[in-house]
Write a structure and sequence with these properties.
The complex is a heterodimer of chains A (253) and B (310). Chain A has ten helices and ten strands. By secondary structure, chain A is an alpha/beta fold. With 310 residues, chain B is mainly α. In chain B, helix 3 crosses helix 11 and helix 7 packs across helix 8. The radius of gyration of chain B is 23 Å and the shape is globular. Classes of the chains: A alpha/beta (253), B mainly alpha (310). The structure holds adenosine-5'-triphosphate and magnesium ion.
Chain lengths: 253, 310
């Protein structure tokens, strides 16, 4: 396949002795949205957390296989996980802005870690990131307020801005709308579609409509296995696997 | 008339119990004030600002003891707080599960050691360490500097402060440990997600989120350090009056509690015992003042920075 941004090769993952991912081979294309669907506990979160080395932060977690980011194995011992997490950003299920930081600092935090001082450039990046996250107009007069002082949907867009500020190549989203109301969710969905112009996006979702609306490719997982992967159109209109068909028609989940 | 229902009786009971805490504090204060009226009538403000402790003249001032209290407590915080935070961070963020619980338990056990035991250890062991490894070298090479001047004996402010540092560790460390474990994991993950290292996560997020709780832990430790009597009395050297006026860290001196413990029972005259009670009043005032200041500071910090209100 052409234009592959990030790819798992024979990926297995465990929590203690429990295997959460079984031999996953999945390629995520650049500047496209890949949805990951499947019933609860099938390993969706675990999978995307292996893509930016967040998986290893869980004390009992283990893994084997490779994740290739631009054909480089991110689990190579010479690779610094901190650098990977800057290149592969993450948005979580529950909006989690930093409560002790202002809206401005929430967005600037990642850059400040890299040594950027509060200068004009930082102001611009903050503004650009908030604009990209379609939040700028709503918060531009409240940049000094705490990151937790805005609504849930705004907080989630703030978290997206926080990820964008580091100019990542890939953005991972783990059910980014499941804690939000329909209107806020719709905003995030439109935003996700916008993001693919500049970023590669992988999004975990429980919502079939959402997957079919926003994504270009869809991966269906079940009990730690990758059951089927293809263009979203194919998966939803002509799934090859029985399980996929039963899942997308809502027979189980 | 209010009906005598079970609910009402319960309400009154709870109110009485709650009020008794205040009543005890007020009674305490009252006793200290009336008890010390005599010395304040004789010495006036000089009781606070004076440095002599002399019953022949008579002239009583507790300034050396006030400074001694502040200096030893200051050393205790300076040394004890970083150690306690290190322990708390180690337990929550770094220690493997297997040693986490036993280690926390051990740290808490330090609180169960009676203070006279700390005092004995201070006299028999710590004092010589301080003398051989800190005081003598510093005095030899930097003796011209007032803080390190004098003739080191191992007894004095430094040793007392270090004993206090150890004694506040269980309090500060275990409260901080609770505070740090209460920091939501989602915050740590978000921080790792933007490329923070473990050290950065702890420094910029965990400690910042827990700062009000940690501040509270430090104040608890400070309270313990200010009031500690027995261990301090055993190692501070109990230099009374002007000779206990602090210049050097290595010199002997006294704190308010050690002053009272060292002399109250031998006080021969009404004026003398009134002076000791006055020292108690000053001690109580300092403790209350620090608590109030801490409270004000805490609400102020939280308001300005916003968020993280547990
Ligand atoms: N921290 C953990 N410790 C132990 N087991 C875990 C942990 N996290 C996940 N698991 C297990 O790994 C498997 C996959 O979990 P994962 O969270 O990846 O599923 P998921 O597809 O994201 O589910 P959901 O849709 O409910 O979020 C599950 O069986 C789960 O119980
Ligand atoms: Mg999940």
């Amino acid at each position: 396949m052409d234009n592959i941004k990030i790819q798992s090769v024979n990926l297995n993952a465990w929590f203690g002795t429990k295997q959460a991912l079984k031999d996953i081979n999945l390629s995520i294309k650049a500047n496209a949205i890949t949805a990951i669907i499947g019933p609860s506990g099938c390993g969706k979160s675990t999978f995307i957390r292996t893509l930016n080395r967040m998986h290893e932060l869980t004390p009992t977690a283990k893994m084997s296989g490779q994740i290739l980011l631009d054909s480089q194995n991110i689990y190579d011992p010479i690779v610094d996980p901190v650098m990977i997490r800057r290149r592969v950003g993450m948005v979580f299920q529950k909006p989690n802005p930093f409560p002790t930081m202002s809206i401005y600092d929430n967005v600037a935090a990642g850059l400040k870690l890299t040594g950027a001082r509060k200068d004009k450039n930082l102001d611009e990046v903050v503004k650009y990131s908030l604009q990209q996250a379609t939040l700028w107009d709503e918060v531009k007069d409240d940049l000094k307020k705490p990151g937790t002082s805005i609504s849930g949907g705004q907080q989630q867009r703030l978290c997206i801005a926080r990820a964008i500020a580091l100019q990542p190549e890939v953005i991972l989203m783990d059910e980014p709308t499941s804690a939000l109301d329909p209107i806020a969710s719709a905003k995030i969905e439109r935003l996700v579609v916008e993001l693919k112009k500049n970023y590669t996006v992988a999004i975990v979702t429980h919502n079939m409509q959402q997957a079919s609306r926003v994504s270009d490719y869809t991966a269906f997982m079940y009990l730690g296995n990758l059951i089927e992967f293809g263009s979203t159109k194919d998966i939803f209109e002509s799934p090859k696997n029985q399980l996929t068909e039963r899942y997308i028609t809502g027979e189980f989940g | 008339m209010i009906k005598l229902t079970g609910d009402n009786i319960f309400k009154v009971l709870v109110a009485v119990i709650a009020a008794s805490a205040i009543v005890i504090l007020l009674l305490n204060t009252y006793v200290l004030i009336t008890g010390s009226a005599n010395v304040f009538a004789t010495s006036g403000f000089g009781f606070i600002s004076g440095r002599n402790w002399n019953f022949d003249i008579p002239s009583f001032g507790v300034l050396p003891a006030i400074l001694g209290t502040l200096i030893t407590s200051g050393i205790a915080l300076l040394v004890g707080v970083p150690l306690s935070l290190g322990i708390a961070i180690f337990i929550v963020e770094m220690a493997p599960r297997a040693i986490r619980v036993p280690f926390s338990y051990l740290v808490e056990m330090l609180a169960a050691v009676p203070s006279v035991i700390y005092g004995l250890w201070g006299m028999l062991v710590l004092r010589f360490w301080v003398l051989d490894y800190i005081e003598t070298p510093l005095n030899t090479h930097l003796g011209w500097f007032p803080l390190f001047s004098g003739t080191p004996t191992g007894y004095g402010f430094l040793t007392a402060g270090l004993i206090l540092a150890i004694m506040i560790i269980p309090t500060v460390a275990s409260v901080s440990r609770e505070v740090i474990s209460a920091v939501p994991n989602s915050i740590r993950e978000a921080a790792y997600g933007i490329g923070a290292t473990k050290w950065e996560v702890i420094r910029h997020w965990v400690l910042s989120y827990g700062r009000s709780g940690i501040f509270g832990a430090i104040i608890l430790g400070l309270g313990r350090a200010i009031g500690e009597t027995m261990a301090v009395t055993m190692v501070i050297g109990n230099a009374s009056g002007a000779s206990g006026m602090p210049v050097s860290l290595f010199q002997t001196g006294q704190t308010l509690p050690s002053l009272i413990a060292g002399g109250f029972f031998d006080s021969q005259t009404a004026l003398l015992s009134s002076a000791y009670i006055g020292a108690g009043l000053v001690l109580l005032a300092i403790s209350l003042l620090i608590n109030v200041a801490a409270h004000v500071m805490m609400t102020r910090v939280l308001k300005v920075k916003g968020g993280a209100v547990e």
